Amino acid sequence: MPSRRADPLTLEVVELIGSVVARYHEEYEDAAASHQLTGAQARVLTLLSLEPMPMRRIAQQLKCEPSNITGIVDRLESRGLVERRPDPADRRVKLAAPTQEGLQTADRLRESLDFAREPLAGLSAAERAVLRDLLKRMLG
Amino acid sequence: MPSRRADPLTLEVVELIGSVVARYHEEYEDAAASHQLTGAQARVLTLLSLEPMPMRRIAQQLKCEPSNITGIVDRLESRGLVERRPDPADRRVKLAAPTQEGLQTADRLRESLDFAREPLAGLSAAERAVLRDLLKRMLG
DNA sequence: CCATTTACTTGACAACATGAAATATCCAGG
DNA sequence: CCTGGATATTTCATGTTGTCAAGTAAATGG
Known about the structure:
Chains A, B: Residues 10-140 form the HTH marR-type domain. Chains A, B: Keywords: DNA-binding, Transcription, Transcription regulation. Two copies of one chain form a homodimer. With 140 residues, the first copy, chain A, is an alpha+beta fold. In chain A, 65% of the residues lie in helices and 12% in strands. Chain A has seven helices and three strands. Chain A has a three-stranded antiparallel beta sheet. In chain A, α2 crosses α4 and α3 crosses α4. Chain A is elongated, with a radius of gyration of 19 Å. The interface between A and B is large, with 45 and 45 residues. Chain A binds a DNA duplex (30 and 30 nucleotides) through residues 38, 40-41, 54-56, 64-72, 75, 87, 90-94.
């Protein structure tokens, strides 16, 4: 039910969220590029740095087709950042896992993601807590 | 200056912003797809629905190369959603403008962008105002 | 009036994304 | 045990987005 026209305040907040999204993306792509990674490659590498996982699960997390992941992991693998391991429990499955160098790259990537510190630095701890709670409720 | 490790609260907020960004994107792509548009096409059409503008300016707004815009506008034009007009003041310039049908599509697109209403509905007006102010300050 | 700059397009190329088909493996019911 | 159906991954064809370099047309300023 589309309710009726959203009120001006809601529209303003939506507009601001759009700006946050645009800025986040820009900074994410820049951070990735500074490590010669594309955004998609950076996302996959970051995911794997938390926990190795089957190709299929990567696709689920990124909400795309598994056949797409094949190519992205291929490129990461050809650069020595990721490797495919057999799953002892299921020979159909290939576990993608970061190499040592992949882990280091993921760490440096995390550090260069300044969207964290820079824009939030202007907010006090109390304000950040309020923001956290509001975002949490927004995300349901 | 990477300052030192960000505190847990900041990290939590950053994580939440990441979730908001992911969700916003997902919904945006879905809304675009429901009108047989790609995300990029939807962004350009939305931009033009506010105000016709030269190709060059579209590229600046989208932060990409002008040569990229040529293709996106080509596809929108071949579907009758956008047209190129000469700029009376400068014959090098082509103004991209939405057609009647393009305007209608842009309107319907806006309506289906429920990221506005749905998640924000859980917040009171006062809370939305607080959120607005915090986001504004975050964006500097 | 000529050199330079600007706006746009074109062409070559890479990454990303989807969908369909192929391969290998698992698994459950007979 | 065996077979038929489901599952995991890859390959291929195709389309969109993105970059960069080169080309054309038009403006602009010495």
